[in-house]
Amino acid sequence: MVSYRKELDGIRALAVIAVILYHADFQLVGKTLFKGGYLGVDVFFVLSGYLITGIIRDKLGKGNFSIVDFYWRRIKRIVPALLVVLIFTSVCAYFVLIPDSLIAYAKSLRSALYFGSNYYFLSEDSYIAEASIHKPLLHTWSLAVEWQFYVLFPIIILFINKFFKRYTLGILIIMMLASLQYANIIVGERSDEAFYLLPSRAWELFAGGIATFYNRSNLDTLKDGTIGSLIAKAMPVFGLFLVIHSMIFIGHDNPHPSFITAIPVIGICLFIIFANKGDIANDIFSIKPIVFIGLISYSLYLWHQPVFVFFRLLKSDEINHSQLIILIIIAMLLSVITYYLIENKFRVRKLSIFKIITLILMASLLFSFYKVAIETKGFSDRFSGKLKEVNERFSVLEFRKLKDENNLGKGYLSSQQQSLCNNRTVDTACAFGDKEWINIGDSFAGQLDPELKKALDEKGHGFISMTYEQCPFVSPNIWFGNVPECAVVNEDRLKYFSNLQEKKKIIVAANYWQFSLPKKRIPVSNLSSSAFPENVDFDKEIAWKSYVDNIKFLLSKGHDVYVIYPIPVPHIDVRNQLLGQLNTPISTYREEFSPSKLSYPDTIRTTKKLDSLLPDHPNLHKVYTDKIFCENEQCLIINSDGAIYSGGGGHLTDVGAKMVLKSFL
Questions:
Q1: Distance from C-alpha of 58 to C-alpha of 46, rounded to nearest angstrom
Q2: d(CA 176, CA 207)
Q3: Do residues 231 and 274 share a domain?
Q4: Which of 187, 433, 458, 522 has its Cβ near the most Cβ atoms within 10 Å?
């Protein structure tokens, strides 16, 4: 039987604090304190697996296990607090989010209601999706994983118990290892899938379940001073070391979940198995204040993300220490209220009809909110006048605006004709006027297309657009993000320029921040992402080297080349900030909307790196965007014409694109 253990609530406190500090990007003396704070979720998975397996095994042993009762208990434990947080978050979303963001929020709300958040966030278009720090319900993906496990696991256990009871432990170990191996295999190829989905996460819950098979009464029979006693006392301390070490040092740049993730999972299992009353590790995590945080950890986990997100949307993406303390206090207060008034009230053995109807009404209200939000395009009627004008300006990103209705093209993954100039095959690229210019690169080049066409039209010239999202002009042996076809795109681009006889003026731009994450191309017969696995040992400098080599190749052919240097990235969501402060005098924007201190130095470092690799040439024109947007290390993101950036990822609006083009056209 799994009895209540205070020290495990203490571990829950550690897990939720680690997650909170990670999401706050908490730093001391310029160093991130909990680089691996996200592993707190993995600790929760193990603890949940331990609790659930213990409950099921205990009930089966007594012969009174009911799968319906099991599901009902899980509903009472999880759903009431979740619905309360979703209602609060939806009200805030209505008043804070712009229409596009509210539509995305509504979709995530629907997925949270049926515990499918992990699939929703996996399916998002990563190129236009909100940054993770601006998604109020992103954290519900882990609830979805747990719920999916709760639905399937009792059925699996019942089947094993009926037909293979004597092999229960062995079967669970095999399933755990299979899930772990699966996670480790796909994390390189499909890291998002490995992160979000149950098949690659189940091993952590199985690990907790396996821990229930150790008979903890053996700990009380060990004699002091014996090897067995010393090992038993050392194991929980060693386990805690593995967990805390992982939370501090295993950053998100490591493959996750993978064999590396097994370090904290093994650590927490050691603590679960060997922690015993009277031992230092056990007693520290049994201290009342720590245990209390563990008791409210579910509500605290639910509340912290929306509290942080709405602060960032209304104030700043960066949270300083004093702000973090205030936000944690707010989340704690909300969690305490939710714990006593919601969680405890709904945990009773039998719910009243009133409470059941209340839950149904809350869920119905939230689903209605989703439906209306979608039908009204994000409650767009909230905006009028200047607000409406600004919102419409942001509704479509620049690199997805330019079209050629008269000459349709096609993409690499579909033969369907398209008018959009972005993401076309090279042989069907949009071509305007005398085609004196060519614009080539990823979306950081594509965002210049609409304003480039306007500017060249005025001068009586035209251009060819060779832009493709997440596909800078690099080696055809690599690709980025979720666009494996980029390898073929660049193969065609190089063929085109090899055969080109005319001298052109060529604009080359890229999202340089992704250059550290290239993926290796292998020979395949199709363009599916699964056919282009990521090789973690791949040369990380190949993107830089091949990018520069391609520019040199263009110069050797006699072309004039205009290289757009790294664009300073704002650490705020410009859309929300602008819509929230339309009455702010333009004269104060330099002060109010200057990027964080991190943004400018990062831009300078990347600029210097590109400069060091790209020697001067008579036909080479270097367009330093930091000199266009910044002065004395203060970078404008808004001017009298409007916002320069379209969001928080560094993409420009028509205003920003015009400023860049004006510097050399």
A1: 18
A2: 7
A3: yes
A4: 187
